[in-house]
Amino acid sequence: MTLPGIVLACAWVACAEAGSDRNAVDWSARVADVPVLASAQEQMRHAAAQSARLRRWPAATLAAERVRVAASWIAVRVRFPLERACVAEASFRAAELLRWSGQIEAAVAELELVRALGVDSSYRWRSCLELAHIERRRRRFERALDLYLSVAGESACGSRLRDDAAIWAGKTYALLGRFDDARRWLRRVAESAFDALDRIRAYDEWIATYVIVDDIEAAAGVLAACRGALEAAALKPTSSGERVRIALRRMRCIALLEQAVARRRAGAVLHSRGDDDE
């Protein structure tokens, strides 16, 4: 085996041993059932065609079929380990299918493999984000935060991925009760992101960090700033302008802020009645 092939094999073994899914899949048997094609590109096209068929697959057996199709993607790295860019994408696609089918540890192994490859492509950073989401759902917030920050601070990945990671870093800081850090990351995206919808997402989470601690005045101030900053984008008579208007109307923080105001008013009424009773 060539050196790159050995590196890939070692990375796979290390990642696979990192978790122990009780429903672990025997990939050697499943990959053996996948047609052997002449190149990595042809193997990728075959896997993509298999994935496309899933859109019409009956829901009752969809999870099992996703695992079978994941084997078509995994066949790329097994048979063409030197095609590192193809391997990175194929392992990422396999991980998506495995996660959707409930094979979380198998998905993690594929995502870790993409990271270990070190290929400078979007799949490397997308794998970091997916790993971070998995860790966050497991409530391993510190580990998730490290992964989010690794993407948010990476100049080699696209701005959309960086902004997405920064928003999730802010949300994770908030889950840890570190609101100043959360606001710093969320404010950065809210005020400087290229995409208006990402800015609205960031503003939404930023405002929520104030509502959580009952700082209604600060929350209302940031909401007003958000509406002012996005006004020009919202007024555009285009489909993008319509998307911005819809996103502004649907901000989660609006309901949170209204509920906080209602609670404060209710508390003030109760306090007033208490004074009257005295």
Question: How many helical elements?
Answer: 15
Helix/strand-derived class? mainly alpha
Radius of gyration: 24 Å
Total domain units: 2
Regions with pLDDT < 50 over 5+ consecutive residues?
1-7, 12-23
Give the SSE string: HHHHHHHHHHHHHHH
- Annotation, overall tally of beta strands: 0
- Indicate the percent of residues in helices: over 70%
Largest sheet: none
Question: Termini separation (Å)?
Answer: 87 Å
- Report the β-strand fraction as a percent range: under 5%
Shape: elongated
Can you give the mean pLDDT?
A: 89
Describe the structure.
The protein is mainly alpha-helical and 278 residues long. Helix content is 78%, strand content 0%. The protein is built from 15 helices and no strands. It has helices spanning 3-18, 27-32, 40-53, 62-79, 84-100, 104-117, 122-137, 141-152, 159-175, 179-192, 196-212, 216-229, 231-234, 239-249, 252-277. Helix 8 (141-152) runs antiparallel to helix 9. The longest helix has 26 residues, at 252-277.
In a few lines, what is going on in this structure?
With 278 residues, the chain is mainly alpha-helical. It has helices spanning 3-18, 27-32, 40-53, 62-79, 84-100, 104-117, 122-137, 141-152, 159-175, 179-192, 196-212, 216-229, 231-234, 239-249, 252-277.
Topology (SSEs and partners):
Layout: H1 3-18, H2 27-32, H3 40-53, H4 62-79, H5 84-100, H6 104-117, H7 122-137, H8 141-152, H9 159-175, H10 179-192, H11 196-212, H12 216-229, H13 231-234, H14 239-249, H15 252-277
Helix pairs in contact: 1-6, 3-4, 4-5, 5-6, 6-7, 7-8, 8-9, 9-10, 9-11, 10-11, 11-12, 11-14, 11-15, 12-15
